[in-house]
Amino acid sequence: MMNLYIIYIFLIMFLFGCISFILTRKHLLCMLLSLEFMVLMLFILMILYLNYMNYEMFFSMFFLTFCVCEGVLGLSILVSMIRTHGNDYFQSFSILQC
Known about the structure:
Blueprint: H1 2-23, H2 28-52, H3 58-85
Helix pairs in contact: 1-2, 2-3
């Protein structure tokens, strides 16, 4: 029964991460931080699920690999955006410029 409460807590934390991702759309860095928070909550929920079903934790390594790739791509976009525009505001550049 206690395990169900833990899962509910992590689901609520994931929903808070989704809400913060939606509300912080002005800064790219804040969006990346909330996205990483959501990924961390998904990882914990996946570990709890795999542990509950007595599966192997083998799949979690694939998930972590893709999470690291997602984080690296986000940071590279952030660095290139700061180099070209000087900040991480989305209002400072137009999407029509190439």
